[in-house]
Design goal:
With 489 residues, the chain is an alpha+beta fold. It contains 17 helices and nine strands.
């Protein structure tokens, strides 16, 4: 069995990363049998610049190995002229979309490892926690009104995107017409979708409402009392905000502030960053966008923040989190890390959202795929990519010129160049075609969602579904060709 996310040999490695050292001491596990290779920092940074310069508004990327920064690159604009003309750098907060799910998933696993008898009164192991039904940790008004199908969902299903949750239609939403977590619980799941992997935001949105209740078992009693006294509705903003605020307090107080160095991501950038005198990167339609960009402030738009997306963070901060995750026991142990991805059973992965395959990587390291955590939110796209040999790459762009897959593939290409894997001349053309296909899948997916939300009728929904299926098939064919050509974008 080959586990990408195995602990590498590390002897108390630390490296200054702007505001402090990246990690604490390490826990060593076998690296595994991979052939020796040399990494060229200058080649990596040059290839990353070649991949991004001029093609996006701005980008920032950091590569770490065993918790140490080994390479970084940034260029372009965090803000265009209309927004103040600010250059991008690796310490610029930017929206990373669903990539923030990685921190939410690890935060939950951090609690599962707790030996605190208040948090873990039954003395459960991580596997025992993963196999617990989640509904026991819901507020009373959710438990008494949710669909009975929710009772079969366990923590493992959420972290593997196997819960069975699917999109909501307009009729599934509450009286305010907004999409909230309880709406998914009331709708329930189709049994045909249960335990079938399908990436859905709802899985990690729900972690928002489970984490603080596990961390503070007394919270549920308080919430139940407040809900009864205030006559809260199960689908209302009050109960969602009450628990989501407790989750945000927990992740800042017990996770982000406790790693080395501490980090301060924000889901309320328009309020928090001006108080700190910090700028941040809005997102744009394209590299040449002259209009003002968009800041997607979760607290301003939604009233509260959640684990599935809508957070601003720098590439250095994201790299610091990954360093603490991988090269120390600050967040989780090596045993738990090993549960998250096994190359021989990649479809059983937890927390990691996607995988990327590459023929040259397979030939050199015998890894059929590499896990990554992609995030896409408007024109903001980001990734965390696990690489052979204890390397991890993080990358962020702030324009809608390509998706998180495009960011991931470009970082992979940089790594391959840095370790001496030559490029295939057919790659650039395939890269352009794949970007177009990825964009088409996103468009067809949004059209299907719009048709469902509008109750457009069976024929229209079926047509939208067929268009999405064709676009996905086209993308799969192009990616297979890219792998055959031994290239990444």
């Amino acid at each position: 069995m080959k586990k990408i996310i195995q602990q590498s040999l590390l002897a108390s490695a630390t490296l200054a990363v702007g505001i402090g050292s990246m990690i604490s001491t390490a826990h060593a596990l076998p690296l595994g049998t991979i052939p020796p290779f040399t990494f060229d920092k200058a080649l990596f940074e040059a290839r990353v610049r070649k991949a991004f310069d001029g093609d996006v508004m701005g980008y920032e990327a950091v590569l770490i190995k065993d918790g140490q920064v080994v390479a970084q690159a940034a260029n372009g604009m965090a803000r265009n002229v209309a927004d103040g003309n600010v250059k991008m750098n690796t310490s610029m907060p930017a929206n990373i979309g669903s990539t923030i799910k990685f921190t939410g998933g690890i935060t939950l696993l951090n609690l599962f490892e707790s030996k605190n008898t208040t948090i873990n009164p039954h003395g459960w192991s991580v596997d025992q926690w993963l196999d617990q039904p989640i509904y026991h940790y819901f507020p009373a008004i959710w438990q008494s009104n949710m669909d009975a199908s929710i009772k079969q969902i366990k923590f493992r299903h959420l972290l593997q995107h196997r819960s069975g949750f699917r999109g909501l239609t307009a009729n599934d939403k509450g009286d305010d017409g907004l999409k909230r977590m309880y709406d998914y619980l009331e709708k329930g799941i189709d049994q045909a979708n249960f335990d079938v992997r399908s990436y859905q935001n709802a899985n990690f949105s729900l972690i928002t409402y489970l984490t603080p209740v596990i961390a503070d078992p007394g919270l549920l009693t308080k919430v139940n009392q407040e809900a009864f006294a205030g006559n809260w509705k199960p689908e209302g903003a009050e109960i969602h905000k009450r628990i989501a605020d407790a989750w945000e307090k927990h992740i800042h107080g017990h996770i982000y502030s406790q790693i080395t160095p501490p980090i301060r991501p924000s889901c309320n950038p328009t309020v928090e960053y001006p108080k700190m005198g910090r700028s941040w990167a809005p997102d744009y339609k394209s590299a040449g966008d002259d209009d003002k960009g968009t800041t997607r402030d979760s607290r301003a738009s939604n009233g509260y923040c959640q684990a599935q997306g809508g957070w601003y963070i720098t590439a250095r901060e994201l790299a610091a989190f990954v360093a603490n995750y991988h090269a120390s026991n600050t967040l989780v142990s090596g045993a738990t890390r090993d549960k998250l991805f096994d190359d021989d059973q990649s479809n059983e992965r937890m927390v990691w959202s996607f995988t990327i395959g590459d023929t040259a990587i397979n030939e050199k390291f015998h890894y059929k795929s590499l896990p990554y955590m992609g995030g896409d939110h408007g024109g903001a796209h980001a990734t965390i990519l696990a690489l052979p040999g204890g390397y991890f790459a993080v990358g962020i762009i702030n324009s809608d010129d390509f998706s998180s897959y495009g960011v991931t593939a470009r970082l992979l290409r940089g790594f391959k160049t840095a370790i001496g894997i030559a490029e295939d001349p057919s790659c650039p053309g395939l890269g352009t075609a794949i970007i177009g296909a990825v964009n088409e899948v996103a468009l067809r997916s949004s059209q299907l969602q719009a048709a469902q939300d509008a109750n457009a009728g069976a024929a229209a929904i079926r047509a939208a579904y067929n268009n999405l299926t064709l676009a996905q098939a086209k993308l799969a064919t192009l990616r297979a060709k890219a792998e055959t050509a031994v290239c990444s974008l």
